[in-house]
Design goal:
The chain is α+β, with helices and mostly antiparallel strands. The protein contains 2 helices and 6 strands. It is globular.
Length: about 120
Amino acid sequence: MKFENTGLEGMQIDLNQLTHIMEQHGMVLAGQWDYERVTYDRKFELKEGIYYLRIFGFAAKGDVGAEDALIELMAPLLGKHYYPHGVEYGENEYFPESLVQTCEKLLTDIKGEILYYV
């Protein structure tokens, strides 16, 4: 499920500031980066299954590995995890309304904090 019109898509922010903000909201970078891209995840374990809110970004300038990148954010996605195949984001997936609302609030809060820094 793609979150449209969150205001996050296209925003640019320093990698270190972004990581700090994301961590404050339970979003984890972990090993999900390369020199040009980052992915922040938050895992939700519900009775309906395991879901991931993912926020992707790419280095508009600089280098992620050197921690001096300016990250441009992309549209956030919500996906359901299927073992052993991975995460599916498709339109045919079921996403509990309470989870969608939680993710929307989380994205709004993250956007507000990013706006504070930019």
